[in-house]
Design brief:
Low-confidence stretches: none
Shape: globular
Structural class: alpha+beta
Number of strands: 5
Largest sheet: 5 strands, antiparallel
Distance between the termini: 28 Å
Strand content: 25-35%
Helix content: 25-40%
Mean pLDDT: 94
Amino acid sequence: METFEEVFENVDCVIADTARKLRNIALKQVPDVEEAVVGGAKVQNVLYYSGDSTRIVCGIQPSSGRCLFYLHRVTPEDVPEYHLGGKGKHSNHIAFGSPDEVKNAVIKRVIGVSVERLP
């Protein structure tokens, strides 16, 4: 898969709409944003980076009836409005079940935190 739409074409429409909402925020908030699809045939992740591909800010992934929104260099203290899941050293996620769960101002703020902490 090579495009955002291809990654989300076979998932539930509510999850795809959630992903589109998150994507729109990321595209507007990340300076010099680039979008790339990574992963294999079973698991794809759409990553957003600033400048070059080593400067990842966030990512979006479909996962069993949810849309996972990955944030890089963000801690649970940075986003008390949501549960930050995962065990990644530099990346954790928020699991969304619908677009209504996405709080635009909060997502914009935590994307800003990730950008500020870019290497």
